[in-house]
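thread: overnight batch results

M.L. [08:02]
morning all. the overnight job finished for the chain we discussed friday. pasting input first so we're all looking at the same thing
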Amino acid sequence: MLGAALLLLTTPAFPASIVRGPYVEGVSEHSAYVCWRTDAETQGTLVWRALPEGPELSVDDPVPARQRCLEAKPLIPGARHEYRVRVREGGGPPSRTEPRVFRAPAGSSETIRFAAFGDTGQATPAQLEVARRLDEADPDFVLHAGDVVYPYGADADYDAKYFAQYGRFIDRLPVFVAVGNHDYANTRLRRRRGLEWLRDNFLAVHRLPRQRAGDAWEAPPPERTYYSFDWGPGHFVALDANRAYPIAAAPSLGPRSEQLAWLEKDLAATTRPWKIVLLHVAVYSSGGHGTDEDLARTLAPVLERSGVDLVLQGHDHNYERTTPIAAGKRAQRGPVYVTVGTGGAPFHRGRRDHYWSRVFKHVYGFLEIVLEPERLKARGVAADGSTFDEFELTRTTGPSRR
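M.L. [08:03]
and the structure it wrote out:
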């Protein structure tokens, strides 16, 4: 009788359940992370294979935990990969997910299609409508310009303001995020506490892609918030520009800073035809926050001489596209800056008049970009499916490669 009672106490009545995910993170040519969270501490297994007939591979994590990310590697570039996860609580029965599929990055000669937006996580009706439209668009991946979850990027707010909005597609579409000031708890925290906050919240949910280092693939340092990746003909760089806001915990982008030196080296090393930069705090903007003079003075010249074609930025809750800008002025050659703070947060009213501003709108939606080796075609897609902007960039010879 006592043995039966002990058995009832030690055997879970129901298998543990997955309450977040699974979802894909940090997808590179080399590997992808599959992350999930359970309602109790469990052991976890990730199983995957390249389609249509690749061998089944798996990785186990026997250490009980609620939140985990397991890495599927190696991947086949351009191939679709099927995966599922298994969880087991103690000695209880395992729970399994249905198979899901994601695609690994394509080679440099392939045409790709991706979406960009930012300033999202307030669980507004607009955020949900944009999410539905993005799910229907089904791009290869998504770029997020930061401020993922308001007001402080707290893990507790992710369920209602991220997973409830994007759960329909983040199990197949990787979202590459440039961290925003609200993801750092805005301006509440000193440097050390801000780094701890980011580790315990933003970096607990998201995984950065492995970085190519010669023939090796290295994981970024644990507190690194900037990174790059290749997909199709594009080289993409996500920066952390929040020190300019100022966020004390964010890395500097000033002269002789580690991040700026890394950026110059990274952009010089790529052989992909297109260079696209993602960051939160806007370099050039005529919206509510406006141009950041520090970034315009220190970062913009690096982008210009490195041949960056397009800069996607957030922070201002509006859509704006500039002319090419060089040395702070409208130019024939130089990066085009596009503010995509259109993901659902209430609009910032007020605007400064700048002659380099080509298009300015208060609209919810995202920027959809088709990237070919010789051409970039972009279309602003509103939450109702209408088009609110269109533009095209082409490759030419010359130092700007525009």
